[in-house]
């Protein structure tokens, strides 16, 4: 699932981190180029705004025409696949790893990290301040309402999901 990164990609990550807090149209293009160099694929019309922290670039797969708004936290350590024409709202967190907690004799923070991929389909809108947990798949055409916490897969396409935990509230076309 993940591939090792070479020296140019590691330098690209450092440059990405150096520019992630800065805001300008020029930097949108630079971040697009850097993500293309790091991941080995140059997505068309990728917009990554300021303060978007990406961890685990080697597990990141990103489609064309994706917008990731300000203050997002993307963990791709366990594998993160973002489809085509996806809009990710301000302050969203996508997590692909969690602490294990199965051994009662070991403090949770010292237990192994458990990772599971997150897959986001095509034509998905993720609202502001959404949290998506490890192992979740989001179907094509889904809208996730602002503030939702997605803990389970959303498998029906064209669904509107909301709440904590998120659940399907209706179809986009009802």
Short description:
With 174 residues, this protein is of the alpha/beta class.
What does this structure look like?
This protein has one domain: Hexapeptide repeat proteins (UDP N-Acetylglucosamine Acyltransferase, domain 1, 3 Solenoid), CATH 2.160.10.10. The strands form four sheets. A seven-stranded mixed β-sheet has the order 1-4-7-12-15-17-18. Helices cover 16% and strands 28% of the residues. The longest helix is centred in the first third of the chain and has 15 residues. It has two helices and 18 strands. With 174 residues, the protein is an alpha/beta fold. The chain starts with 6 loop residues before the first helix and ends with a strand. α1 runs antiparallel to α2.
Strand order of the largest sheet: 1-4-7-12-15-17-18
For the residues shown, what is the average pLDDT? 91
State the fourth-level CATH superfamily: Hexapeptide repeat proteins
- Helical element count? 2
- Principal-axes geometry comes out as globular
**Element order, helices and strands?**
HHEEEEEEEEEEEEEEEEEE
Rg, Å, rounded: 16 Å
Q: Unreliable stretches, pLDDT < 50, 5 or more residues?
A: none
Record field, number of beta strands:
18
Instruction: Give the quaternary arrangement of the chains.
Output: single chain
- Mind telling me the CATH class? Mainly Beta
Question: Fraction of residues in helices?
Answer: 10-25%
Q: How many independent structural domains?
A: 1
| CATH fold naming | UDP N-Acetylglucosamine Acyltransferase, domain 1
Largest sheet: 7 strands, mixed
What fraction strand?
Answer: 25-35%
Main structural class: alpha/beta
CATH architecture descriptor? 3 Solenoid
Distance between the termini: 37 Å
């Amino acid at each position: 699932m993940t591939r090792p990164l070479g020296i140019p990609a590691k330098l690209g990550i450092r440059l990405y981190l150096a520019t992630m807090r800065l805001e300008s149209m020029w930097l949108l293009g630079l971040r697009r180029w850097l993500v293309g160099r790091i991941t080995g694929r140059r997505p068309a019309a990728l917009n990554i705004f300021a303060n978007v922290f990406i961890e685990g670039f080697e597990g990141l797969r990103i489609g064309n025409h994706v917008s990731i708004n300000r203050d997002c936290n993307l963990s791709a350590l366990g594998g993160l696949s973002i489809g085509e024409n996806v809009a990710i709202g301000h302050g969203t967190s996508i997590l692909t790893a969690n602490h294990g907690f199965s051994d009662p004799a070991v403090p949770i923070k010292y237990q192994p990290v458990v990772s599971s991929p997150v897959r986001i389909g095509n034509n998905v809108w993720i609202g502001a301040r959404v949290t998506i947990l490890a192992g979740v798949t989001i179907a094509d055409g889904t809208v996730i309402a602002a503030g939702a916490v997605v803990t389970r897969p959303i498998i029906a396409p064209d669904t509107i999901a909301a709440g904590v935990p998120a659940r399907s509230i209706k179809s986009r076309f009802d």
